[in-house]
Amino acid sequence: MQLIESILADAAAVTALRRDIHAHPELCFEEKRTADLIAKALTDWGIPIHRGLGTTGVVGIVKGTRGHSERAVGLRADIDALPITEHNTFPHASQHPGRMHACGHDGHTAMLLAAAKHFSNEKNRDFDGTVYLVFQPAEEGGGGAREMIKDGLFKLFPMEAIFGAHNWPGMPVGHFAVKNGPCFASSNEFKIVIRGKGSHAAMPHLGIDPVPVACQIVQAFQTIVSRNKRPIDPGVISVTMIHTGEATNVVPDSCVMEGTVRTFTLELLDLFEQRMREVAEHTCAAFGAECEFEFVRNYPPTINHPAETAFVREVMAEVVGPEGVEEFEPTMGAEDFSYFLQEKPGCYFLIGNGDGSHRIGGHGLGPCMLHNPSYDFNDELIPLGATLWVRLAHKWLATPRA
Fold first, then answer.
1. Which of 299, 325, 346 is the last residue of a domain?
2. Domain total of the chain
3. Whole-prediction pTM value?
4. Domain match, 162 and 30 both
5. Pairing of strands 235-244, 254-263
6. Among 1, 160, 196, 355, which residue's Cβ finds the most Cβ atoms within 10 Å?
7. 243: which strand partners?
8. Do 336 and 201 belong to one domain?
9. Other beta carbons within 10 Å of 140
């Protein structure tokens, strides 16, 4: 493993910053303290910043010393936390009940800050071009990437490509994983209100019962997956909530169904939305009920670009050796880095967070998995992730582009 010595030397100080962020988690678009910490660190290190994109976003601007090229590359870290009450009790556990860095965004921020600290030394900026350090808010459901783009991220900071990373529990420390094409799914929600006609449960013929209508719709949705899409196209329709009724002897007059839809392509998403609407509306009509159908598209699929994926794979192999670079198995989880990849070439990849044995005394009894109240980021990743960011930036700006 080829780690940069100056980054290793600063690892303890950056780890302290990471644990400070972990102890003071902030939810999407509320990351004021976190943004202040990032901005102060960058400013103290002599790196110019821009604030306010996506409400609380911070962009660090690292200019190379070799020339005045307009070439540029973007490196992104997300900074927000989750609405989870932490079960850990170690010293840097969350000080705010109901808020927790349970996905490692504190660690993502620390890895990029460690790279920034390295770049703060002028002799470490021996490249021709600019590296933009993008600290993005509101990944956890707020669409912070989309909002930064709306606020002019790529107009203010033109870049040829953008790269992002996520820690991955269960993958060994010292390993990376990457995949060309779709790697995270689109995230979408639906809500269906079935309006029937309430009656006494002993006289159901006098009403229109929405419950059997809902049951029929749930079953029919699975035929969309098994019979309307191609078997080789991954897709998920999950009804996760059904709310109806207030008493055992009353047929309710309405029923609400909600759930999620995941796909790796927009074409399949279009098909799912169309068929779900048709199934819901026609099933309700067949039973004499009325239907309100709502479909909300949250995050699009995260689709890596071929050339940038191959490039990242090369840099990974240089840092950890070919044996440390794995092929990432796509997940139906979602990631709003997808918005960046719709606008710019780039690649989103994984860095192994280990099996959880890194956690110090006071960790919760649960597994060290993402979105788990016993999770904690593995600080061993900070020098490794930072080294990769530095190597990636140098190699990108040194490689001619068409």
1. 299
2. 2
3. 0.95
4. yes
5. antiparallel
6. 196
7. 256
8. no
9. 19
